[in-house]
């Protein structure tokens, strides 16, 4: 049995607190392993497994001040310093860094790689790497990506032997895909000022530019049918996120459309299933190269037809039977409008797409996710 350590960035929590995709996936892994115990797994996160006291917090503030002056005192970054001490104390077969900004890991990774060897270090890529990340990426010997797109992107920037790269596609939590009674649906719709006859277009995600939410809003404003409404679930990052200039821009852009474009703000992840159940379609309008989306899997499992851009790894998660894939070119707003209207007008097609999505979602279960992870750990030799 492999002894494995997973390391979360300092701002993420385990178990999952915010609904962040990385936190969700790590929590799934931890819970599945507690049940099946096929790996000797330890998950390190701030103030859960790695405890910080008031002095640690003070020293971290000092660390950040010195860093602005380009003075790097690694031992003052108490979370990562304690992570390093923990890893050096234990004899792990593999140490997996779960997402986050590689540049923030730089000093930790360099020290850890020197001590335990890069062949034991794995970076789990939940998104692509930037050119400035290369120095940190060089400290890892193995990589897991959430799609072939991510692995191909890695190979272009840091050529790596095929045996040292693996794909582990995301999953959705089956227990959070629940049915909702007609009474509950009508009650939630009424609360949101949505009538039972309205056609609801759902967006779930962070309110950031690359997610294409601005383009989706502009597409909705081009649609004259007043019973087509856009329901936007999400904030800039997670619970208690502050407004940004972009999120303010979004809310300012819906002037005179407030009855048809509805912002809910942050919704806890375990409550989102209700909103999938009151929607007619889900739209994932990403304008960047989306590595892979948990919301796509959740929408499929909920029986929602999907409109998504042909971006990044999305074409690996979705297919034409359950999703209408559109180009993210300079006509993306018109493409979104046309796709929404097409599905609005073709009820029978929507029903078929929803059924196909439910079947396809069975490829992305938590059991499959855990089994694939265990297989990767067993196949790799350090």
What Rg do the Cα atoms give? 22 Å
Write down the overall geometry: globular
What structural class should be given to the helix and strand makeup? alpha/beta
> What string, H for helix and E for strand, traces the elements in order?
EHEHHEHEHEHEHEHEHEHEHEHEHHH
Give the CA-CA distance, first to last residue.
13 Å
Structure description:
This protein is α/β, with parallel strands linked by helices. It folds into two domains: 3-171 and 365-379, Rossmann fold, CATH 3.40.50.2000; 174-363, Rossmann fold (3-Layer(aba) Sandwich), CATH 3.40.50.2000. 42% of the residues lie in helices and 15% in strands. It has helices at 21-36, 54-68, 78-89, 102-116, 134-137, 148-157, 182-191, 213-221, 245-253, 273-278, 294-301, 314-317, 332-345, 347-361, 366-379; strands at residues 3-7, 40-44, 94-98, 121-125, 142-145, 165-167, 199-204, 228-233, 261-265, 281-284, 306-309, 323-326. The strands form two sheets. It has a six-stranded parallel beta sheet. β10, α11 (294-301) and β11 (306-309) form a beta-alpha-beta unit. The chain is globular, with a radius of gyration of 22 Å.
How are the SSEs ordered, and which strands pair?
Elements: E1 3-7, H1 21-36, E2 40-44, H2 54-68, H3 78-89, E3 94-98, H4 102-116, E4 121-125, H5 134-137, E5 142-145, H6 148-157, E6 165-167, H7 182-191, E7 199-204, H8 213-221, E8 228-233, H9 245-253, E9 261-265, H10 273-278, E10 281-284, H11 294-301, E11 306-309, H12 314-317, E12 323-326, H13 332-345, H14 347-361, H15 366-379
Parallel strand pairs: 1-2, 1-3, 3-4, 4-5, 5-6, 7-8, 7-10, 8-9, 10-11, 11-12
Helix pairs in contact: 1-15, 3-4, 8-13, 11-14
């Amino acid at each position: 049995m492999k002894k494995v350590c997973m390391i979360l960035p300092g701002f993420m929590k385990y178990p999952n607190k915010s609904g962040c995709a990385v936190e969700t996936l790590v929590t799934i892994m931890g819970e599945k392993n507690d049940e099946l115990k096929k790996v000797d797994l330890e998950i390190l996160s701030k103030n859960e497994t790695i405890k910080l006291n008031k002095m640690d917090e003070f020293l971290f503030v000092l660390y950040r001040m010195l860093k602005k002056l380009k003075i790097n005192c690694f031992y003052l970054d108490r979370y990562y310093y304690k992570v390093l001490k923990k890893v050096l104390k234990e004899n792990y077969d593999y140490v997996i860094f779960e997402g986050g900004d590689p540049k923030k890991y730089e000093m930790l990774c360099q020290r850890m790689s020197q001590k335990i060897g890069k062949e034991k270090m794995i970076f789990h890529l939940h998104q692509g790497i930037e050119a400035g990340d290369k120095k940190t990426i060089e400290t890892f010997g193995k990589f897991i990506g959430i799609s072939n797109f991510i692995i191909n992107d890695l190979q272009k920037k840091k050529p790596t032997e095929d045996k040292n790269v693996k794909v582990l596609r995301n999953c959705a939590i089956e227990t959070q895909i629940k049915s909702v009674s007609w009474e509950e649906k009508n009650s939630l719709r009424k609360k949101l000022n949505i009538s039972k006859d309205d056609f609801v277009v759902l967006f779930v995600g962070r309110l950031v530019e690359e997610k294409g939410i601005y383009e989706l809003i502009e597409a909705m404003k081009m649609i004259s049918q007043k019973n087509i409404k856009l329901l936007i679930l999400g904030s800039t990052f997670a619970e208690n996120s502050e407004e940004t200039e972009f999120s303010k821009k979004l809310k300012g852009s819906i002037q005179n459309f407030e009855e048809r474009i509805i912002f809910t703000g942050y919704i806890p992840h375990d409550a989102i299933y209700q909103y999938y159940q009151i929607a007619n379609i889900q739209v994932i309008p990403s304008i960047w190269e989306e590595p892979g989306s948990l919301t796509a899997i959740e929408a499929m499992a909920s029986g929602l037809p999907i409109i998504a851009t042909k971006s990044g790894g999305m074409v690996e998660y979705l297919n034409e039977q359950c999703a209408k894939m559109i180009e993210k070119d300079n006509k993306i707003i018109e493409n979104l409008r046309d796709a929404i209207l097409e599905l609005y007008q073709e009820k029978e097609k929507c029903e078929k797409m929803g059924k196909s999505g439910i079947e396809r979602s069975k490829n992305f279960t938590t059991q499959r996710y855990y089994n694939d992870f265990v297989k990767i750990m067993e196949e790799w030799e350090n």
